[in-house]
Amino acid sequence: AVFKVFILDDDNISTDISSGSFADMEENIHKIKNKIIPIKLIKPPVPPKASADTRVFVSHKDQEKYHHIDSKAADELKVPITAEWLYIRSSKDYQIESRDFVTENQILVAHNDQNIRSTIPSTPVPKQTESENSSKNKLSSSSHVPAYELKWPPVQPDGSVAPEEGEDTMPLIGLKVPRFWEAPPGTTDAELNVMGSKVNGEETIFLMIASYRDFQCRETITSAFSRADHPERLFVGAVDQTVPGDVGCLDLEVPCEQDDSQPICRYRSQISVYHMDAKYATGPVTARHVGDRMYRGESFVMQMDAHCQFVRHWDSKIIQQWRATNNHMAVLSSYLTDVQGSFTPEGDSTRNTRPIMCNSDYEGAMPARYLRHGAQPECEPEVLDMPQLQPFWAAGFSFSRGHFKVRVPYDAYQPMVFQGEEIAIGIRGFTYGYDFYAPRDSVVFHEYAVNSKRRHQVHMFWENAGGSFDERKSYKRGTAVIGMAPGLDPKEWDHSELDRYGVGKVRDVSLFYKIFLIDAVQRKAVQLCPFVKSGLMHRSFQPFLKSDGFGIDYTQLENFDTKSVLEAHLIKQHPEWEKRLKLAIESRRRGELQEAINTAERIGLDKKNPDLVNSARDVLMSLS
After folding, report:
1. What's the rounded Cα separation, in Å, for the pair 338 and 162?
2. What is the distance between the alpha carbons of residues 87 and 78, in angstroms, rounded to a whole number?
3. 0.90 cut: is pTM over it?
4. Would you tell me how many other CB atoms lie within 10 Å of the CB of residue 149?
5. Over the stretch 57-87, which tens digit does the pLDDT of each residue have?
6. CA distance 38 to 304
7. Residue 197: closest CA among 101, 123, 296, 292
8. Where are the alpha helices (DSSP H) in 53-129?
9. Tens of pLDDT, residues 109-140
């Protein structure tokens, strides 16, 4: 290193934060963040020529302005030390004839005459002749198209990204990934809300699938195209994590060369697959983050697992359901029903029930204890003319306008997370103005391993042991971002890129906790299913849909007393379940007794009539 970088604390004690590792340097900076302190660069004895070839810059990630620290003299600057500031010593090997600065562990090149930023490696490139190296870097940086011009496919058939589009490097993990699509500069929220690509004048669907060593990925893609009314409008982005010998998302039993009539062959140009060595996998959050990067401005976006089967006409049906909400900010989401017994031979659904997201409770250890959604009730809908409002979002199935993925992408800073992602996405979505609905009818079903002989030996990402990643750091960030860890010291979690992966400004996080009876301080939650499943939430909130159709107006619901409404609803059920308890005691049938006792406890009847409930418990105990 030509320079060593020191920070001086309030007592004028210096600490060397120079490092060959950006991660180490950032960690050192975290230790003294939120202070205004001087940075002093001290030149150690080095040959004059080497010193003259080194350039040092410091820049805030969201600003064009940067500070160039001349290598010919030691400079002193005062800059805010936060997680949003990084330092880079740019060596001779880059030979970039423009401005260099670092943001989120990546060196970006900003040309003096263009507002274009593109990534170059954060480690020195192999030495070449000065002219070759300079020419190569100038070409690669200037040829990257703006994010709003990124086109399909995000990943080429050979696994590469088009040279003119360029790649990003994921922080922490270091994966080379497609760049995020973004709306054109100056696009307003109102304009983004109605944007979306079309085929033959009709709106498109982006289907995002994250697959971990899943032999059914190809079946899921085949089902999506073969049972769609308009497969020409469907674009599939799959993140395929495999090892040699696995069946990948495009590995057909009969190659396309022998039978090109297969759906995957016929629509190959509409399928883009990001191939990843499974041994480097760090969980579904990482995989789905990569999948979000494959979105290219389609009108609708659907997220699901790699082992699902669609019903006939699914695309027309799900769009019709979405439109029935009259809410442009509607997100249809649920845990899917098991595929077993769900299809007619023709491919239609046999079900008249559907799951609804209402059951969630805390799990995990402090200070990163988080809400995890449990098994969800499946029943006939109480609301028949449209999807039904619910408080929570599910990762296994999500259908919305494409702008949901633009505003609420998966967090790049949460490797090794398997649980807790759903409440984070849901709350972030709520703060951006999105509303979650249970689909009225299921258009896709899930093959659960517990009921499937062929899925009993499925692989899970934690077989990789996570390498050097500590999931506790990920959980701390995940809960802190959404205000679920109010007592967590800000120094203990990563604050990087919160402008992209943080909360929105349409609604406050605290309103979500208030309305849905979540105590983020004590880490306690109330069972909401009676309020949600009954249609009470829907009938109470849906009338406050904004006149322009862009979300429920929660400013009209700030004083809504969910607890009182829920309690009143439960009390109304007491007479009915008192009768059922008495009948169950008389019949002495174990199943009826257990159901009646469970329901009595859920609706608070055990507090109103403890003698009756205790009698039922005694009878149940005597039958053991």
Report:
1. 39
2. 13
3. no
4. 13
5. 444 444 444 444 333 333 333 333 332 333 3
6. 49
7. 296
8. none
9. 333 333 333 333 333 323 233 333 333 332 23
